[in-house]
Write a structure and sequence with these properties.
CATH superfamily: NAD(P)-binding Rossmann-like Domain
Helix content: 40-55%
CATH class: Alpha Beta
Shape: globular
Order of helices and strands: EHEHEHEHEHEHHE
Bound molecules: NADP nicotinamide-adenine-dinucleotide phosphate
Strand order of the largest sheet: 3-2-1-4-5-6-7
Length: about 250
């Protein structure tokens, strides 16, 4: 797969799935812009991703988001790929225990944040007939007994339908929009659920293939969606989850 000459923007590229995505896109020839909140973490990540720059941006802040896209265009003159990856996972609580601020925070980052980046990126992707990949979750596909972080599930389910809406709307510009729903992946986000051997075994066994995933396994699926190999694929929702969502 060849992404030579392509400019890719990966939100939340400082660690986890976003970092692995930045790396694989770069290894396949793209120039990569990664974003994150934490400047030091972002700088360390760019040191490990060839042909990358980092731009600090809080996805909750519209001006930060505008600045990322305008700096990308200023520096590289175009945008071909947007990976809407940045996200947070809240403390697991039942709906009646969540206060409105917690609810709003999750939606602000996981849903409105993706809206902000997509809105800014679309005019540039229209010029390149570019590609968007939204990172949703198995939690957007199904409910989990005792594991329902409601705002998280709501934000991730919304991204699935937005993928289809955006794919349809911008098909006339030949912009492809696809979505990936990971199962449990070994990143900082899931550390709280993998503290003990018992926790790890439980999580491994939740996945029919017998283990949790690695960030690189999600990144490879993202790589496929943004490449020409997926030239006739848009509006698709792909579970990359060791079979978790089929249970
Ligand atoms: N890990 C899983 O099991 C799993 C499963 C399904 C879906 N996902 C989804 O996959 C995506 C990546 O998850 P991950 O596990 O790689 O998470 P992670 O390791 O916790 O990384 C999250 C990334 O998002 C960035 N981010 C968080 N809040 C932000 C904000 N307000 N503004 C800007 N950037 C922000 C972080 O930047 P800083 O480093 O600066 O904080 C970081 O780069 C998320 O959308 C997540 O919901 C993950």
């Amino acid at each position: 797969m060849n992404l030579s000459g392509k400019i890719a923007l990966v939100t939340g590229g400082s660690r986890g799935i976003g970092f692995s995505t930045g790396k694989i896109l770069s290894e396949n020839g793209a120039t990569v812009v990664i974003t994150g909140k934490d400047a030091k973490r972002l700088e360390k990540a760019t040191e490990k991703i060839p042909n990358s720059i980092g731009i600090v941006a809080d996805i909750r802040n519209t001006n930060d988001v505008k600045n990322v896209v305008s700096k990308t265009i200023e520096k590289f003159g175009r945008l071909d790929i947007l990976v809407n990856n940045a996200g947070i996972f809240p403390k697991i609580k039942k709906l009646h225990e969540i206060d409105e601020d917690e609810w709003n925070e999750v939606l602000d980052v996981n849903l409105t944040g993706q809206f902000r980046f997509t809105k800014e990126a679309i005019p540039h992707l229209q010029k390149t007939s570019g590609s968007i990949v939204n990172i949703s979750s198995d939690a957007g596909l199904k409910a989990y007994q005792g594991f329902n972080a409601d705002a998280y599930s709501a934000s991730k389910a919304a991204l699935i339908i937005l993928t289809k809406c955006w794919a349809l709307e911008y098909s006339k510009n030949k912009i492809r929009v696809n979505c990936i729903c990971p199962g449990v992946v070994d990143t900082d986000m899931t550390k709280p659920f993998l503290r003990t051997q018992t926790d790890k075994e439980f999580m491994d066994n939740e996945h029919p293939l017998g283990r949790i995933g690695q960030p690189g396994e999600i990144a490879k699926a993202i790589m496929y969606f943004v490449s020409d190999d997926a030239s006739w694929t848009t509006g698709a929702v792909l579970a990359v989850d060791g079979g978790e969502s089929i249970k």
